[in-house]
């Protein structure tokens, strides 16, 4: 197998791939879990169009942003732990139920593997949700490494998770 090449001739040996919004459309799952949490607080449901721009910076920020639709910062701080626990409980119950693969994801993973690349999935989703979701959607076998948002002391956009993958693979970033 040949390694893919950068235009300057340096070999590409691995690829790091995100999950939510990259391989999977997970906003429908977020909608179910967030609205389950909101119902526990007596808040009206929100739709996918409201949720989608809030996704991608980790669960803590997502919960704070969703609560900010109805609460001021003092109230958010007061209910945050209970809201996070409720969200996680609801998400765990439905994880992957409505999520769908984006077109050509499997074909893309096959093509990367055919080039001899090692693959890692790095997401801000907690690893307890990530691993079952990858498994449920048939993506788990493609990845040598999986890091969730709670796997390391810092999450994306901090470079630490990407640097850790490089260290794990024995590659320079």
Main features:
173 residues; alpha/beta; Rossmann fold; DNA polymerase, domain 1; 2 domains; three-stranded parallel β-sheet; two-stranded antiparallel sheet; 7 helices; 46% helix; globular
- From the alpha carbons, calculate the radius of gyration and give it in angstroms: 18 Å
State the separation between the terminal residues, measured CA to CA.
22 Å
Total number of strands: 7
Q: How many alpha or pi helices?
A: 7
- CATH class placement of the largest domain: Alpha Beta
Description:
- With 173 residues, this protein is an alpha/beta fold.
- The chain has 2 domains: 4-25 and 100-169, HAD superfamily/HAD-like (Rossmann fold); 27-94, Orthogonal Bundle (DNA polymerase, domain 1), CATH 1.10.150.
- It is 46% helix and 12% strand.
- It contains 7 helices and 7 strands, in the order ββββααααβαβαβα.
- The strands form 3 sheets. Strands 3-6-7 form a 3-stranded parallel sheet, sandwiched between helices.
- Helix 1 (27-40) crosses helix 4 (73-94) and helix 3 (59-67) packs across helix 4 (73-94).
- The mean pLDDT is 94.
Concise structural overview:
The protein has about 170 residues and is an alpha/beta fold. It has two domains: about 5-25 and about 100-170, Rossmann fold (3-Layer(aba) Sandwich), CATH 3.40.50.1000; about 25-95, DNA polymerase, domain 1 (Orthogonal Bundle). Helices cover about 45% and strands about 10% of the residues.
């Amino acid at each position: 197998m040949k390694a893919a090449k950068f235009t300057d001739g340096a070999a590409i040996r691995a690829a790091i791939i995100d999950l939510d919004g990259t391989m999977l459309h997970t906003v429908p799952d977020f909608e179910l879990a967030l609205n389950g949490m909101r119902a526990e607080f007596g808040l009206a449901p929100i739709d996918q169009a409201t949720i989608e721009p809030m996704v991608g910076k980790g669960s803590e920020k997502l919960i704070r942003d969703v609560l900010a639709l109805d609460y001021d910062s003092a109230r958010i701080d007061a209910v945050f732990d209970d809201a996070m626990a409720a969200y996680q409980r609801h998400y765990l119950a439905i994880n992957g139920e409505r999520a769908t693969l984006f077109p050509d994801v499997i074909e893309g993973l096959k093509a990367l593997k055919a080039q001899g690349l090692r693959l890692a999935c790095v997401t801000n989703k907690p690893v307890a949700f990530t691993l079952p979701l990858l498994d449920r959607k048939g993506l788990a076998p493609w990845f040598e490494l999986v890091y969730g948002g709670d796997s390391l002391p810092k999450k994306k956009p901090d470079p630490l998770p990407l640097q850790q993958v490089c260290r794990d693979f024995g590659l320079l970033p």
